[in-house]
Design a protein that fits this description.
Elements (H helix, E strand, L loop, with lengths): L1 H47 L3 H7 L30 E6 L17 H18 L3 E5 L17 E8 L9 E3 L7 H19 L10 H4 L13 E8 L4 H6 L1 H16 L6
Parallel strand pairs: 1-2, 1-3, 3-5
Antiparallel strand pairs: 4-5
Helix pairs in contact: 3-7, 4-7
The protein binds zinc ion.
Length: 268
């Protein structure tokens, strides 16, 4: 009886020991797996750490401490005022304008004042287009004062036309009989005369420069040093065609002459 009861005991002992071995193997395997997981976690942690230089780069830039240095003495350059020089002033007196006296009048009604005014306005436009300043003066302009003589253009020209006759033809230019600067006045006369002759194709009418021209009131009223002259554009009888139909040419001749004078040409 006892043997038969021992045998199952042995068998159960064997079964128990094999179960224990299996459990131990499983525990070893679990231990190994957990170790592996721990190793992987450590490697991942190491790789995820930011590198040192990256940390330095991310650090805020230290603000420099302001040092108490002397402020820079800024010396601004001395402003140099160079005013743009005004262009030369030309004075053109339109003969007989601004009053009741129309000057010479032809039987058909052609009036000297209409010729002189038109030519003066055209000459002004030409000179202004070339950059000059131009004053148009009336015959007895308030700017001309014989007692003050303070009106001082760079060139003064009074513009008139001769009487309505047919026995004479041509233009003439003259300066004041008593001039403070006769050489400059003569140069102005030459410049205007030669340019006007070229533009108008009119002859110079010699021998008819009267005392009225040489003592023209306008020349006695401008500044004594201001260059001045007077022109008679032509005779309203003989030179009528030119005086009526070629006024732009006449104005061009006047403007050219004055410009040559202002540019310093000897006009010889
Ligand atoms: Zn006149």
């Amino acid at each position: 009886m006892s043997r038969t009861t021992r045998k199952p005991r042995t068998k159960s002992r064997r079964t128990r020991s094999s179960r224990q071995g299996w459990l131990q193997g499983l525990a070893r395997l679990a231990l190994l797996a957990s170790g592996l997981v721990l190793l992987i976690a450590c490697v991942g942690l190491i790789l995820s750490l930011p590198r040192l230089d990256a940390v330095v780069a991310l650090a805020p830039t230290p603000t420099p401490t302001p040092t108490a240095t002397k402020p820079m003495l800024r010396i601004s350059p001395t402003p140099v005022f160079t005013p743009t020089p005004l262009p030369p002033l030309v004075a053109l007196l339109a003969g007989h304008s601004g009053g009741d006296d129309p000057g010479a009048v032809c039987p058909d009604g052609l009036r000297e004042v209409d010729i002189t005014t038109d030519v003066t306005v055209r000459a002004k436009a030409i000179l202004e287009a070339r950059g000059y300043r131009v004053d148009i003066l009336a015959e007895f302009d308030r700017r001309l004062d014989a007692t003050k003589r303070d009106y001082a253009p760079h060139a003064f020209l009074a513009i008139h036309a001769d009487s309505c006759v047919y026995y004479a033809s041509g233009y003439k230019v003259a300066r004041a009989a008593y001039s403070a600067s006769p050489q400059e006045d003569d140069r102005l006369v030459r410049c205007v005369s030669s340019s006007y002759a070229a533009a108008s194709q009119l002859p110079f009418h010699e021998g008819s420069i009267t005392n009225d021209m040489k003592h023209y009131h306008g020349l006695m009223k401008i500044h004594p040093r201001a260059p001045g002259a007077i022109i008679e554009l032509g005779f309203m009888g003989s030179d009528r065609e030119v005086l009526v139909n070629q006024r732009e040419q006449l104005a061009l001749g006047i403007a050219n002459g004055i410009e040559r004078f202002l540019q310093g040409s000897p006009c010889k």
